[in-house]
Write a structure and sequence with these properties.
2 domains; about 325 residues; Rossmann fold
Length: about 325
């Protein structure tokens, strides 16, 4: 039971927010769409929620899709004058359900989201993470067929953001809820997603398992979204033990794929280095070609001779990228 988005475009006058976007949302999966601000992420959610109509294209929902589609924006939007219980029960009361059922349902979800002890507290008395869990509990207690999250953890600090993301992923798997989440945070997206899509300038560049986006990007734009890449010309293939059958195109390799070692008479020279979070990035002159290498080893100095080894898991050819771009 998939939701299918086919050739969806959305224009606001001369502004193109979405351009021929096509993908599917699988039942019970958590799919994230990542991209910079202004890439069309929120517009896509509004189209999925049927708040906005696409200018072109269509969204196919299964005929047997039960329940509602709920869009949760990044602002907490809890009623400050209501307790957490009253906030979470609000939607069920509006649905005029049985009172005893409502009470059991709300108390169960408050416990699932680990805020049962806060049911008589007001939003101002909760931490940021507890507020965010209350917001999502209020949506999920309605048992939506599709939950749409717009930057759900944007208001949290990094540590709390990751803790909350892991928690929500666990709840999603337990309750088997279909979720589409948009974000600009790579760590967050990798933590929670079954599949991950890259949306830039209204165009969906690639959608696949998170690890495949990093290792097997289908385009240079997708590859660069995850950080710097090295362009290796064909004349260096023998020195790096690369063999690409019948394809003289340059190869693109991530800095993380290289391993460096000191070798007397090595082909590479350390030109410079800089510290990044959790690693050191070196700039190597390798037989006249600049190559960036990212490693945990911080012992190399400028001017040292080194040799490079790499893993083929991080290879992609320019020819392959061009073919994929034309196919899209």
């Amino acid at each position: 039971m998939e939701i299918t988005i086919k050739d969806v475009s959305k224009n606001y006058g001369q502004l193109i927010a979405l351009s021929s976007v096509s993908f599917s949302v699988r039942q019970n999966e958590l799919l994230s769409i990542i991209g910079p601000s202004g890439s069309g992420k929120t517009t896509l959610l509004k189209v999925l929620a049927e708040i906005e109509k696409p200018s072109n294209g269509i969204v196919y929902y299964p005929e047997n899709l039960s329940g509602r589609k709920i869009l949760v924006f990044q602002e907490y939007l809890l009623f400050p004058h209501m307790t957490i219980y009253e906030n979470v029960v609000f939607g069920l009361k509006a649905a005029k359900m049985d009172k005893q059922y409502i009470k059991r349902q709300v108390l169960e979800y408050l416990d699932i989201f680990k805020i049962g002890d806060k049911r008589n507290s007001y939003p101002g008395e909760l931490s940021g993470g507890q507020k965010q869990r209350a917001v999502i509990a209020r949506a999920m207690v309605l048992e939506p067929s599709l939950l749409l999250l717009d930057e759900p953890f944007a208001n949290l600090d990094k540590r709390l953001k990751m803790e909350t993301a892991v928690f929500i992923k666990d709840i999603q798997q337990k309750l088997k809820t279909t979720i589409v989440c948009v974000t600009h945070d790579l760590d967050e997206a990798y933590t929670i997603s079954d599949r991950l899509g890259i949306l830039i300038d209204g165009k969906l560049l690639q959608i696949s398992k998170p690890e495949d986006l990093f290792i097997n990007p289908v385009s240079e734009a997708t590859a660069e979204f995850f950080g710097s890449i090295n362009q290796i010309p064909a004349n260096l293939f023998p020195a790096l033990n690369l063999s690409v059958e019948d394809d003289p195109s340059d190869i693109f390799i991530r800095p993380e794929a290289f391993r460096m070692e000191r070798v007397k008479g090595g082909e590479g020279v350390v030109l410079d280095y800089s510290y990044t979070l959790g690693a050191v990035e070196y700039l190597i002159d390798y037989k006249g070609t600049p190559i960036r290498v990212k490693t945990l080893d911080a012992d190399f100095e400028k001017g040292e001779l080194v040799e490079l080894n790499l893993s083929s898991r991080f290879l992609s050819s320019r020819k392959g990228w061009k073919e994929e771009k034309e196919a899209l």
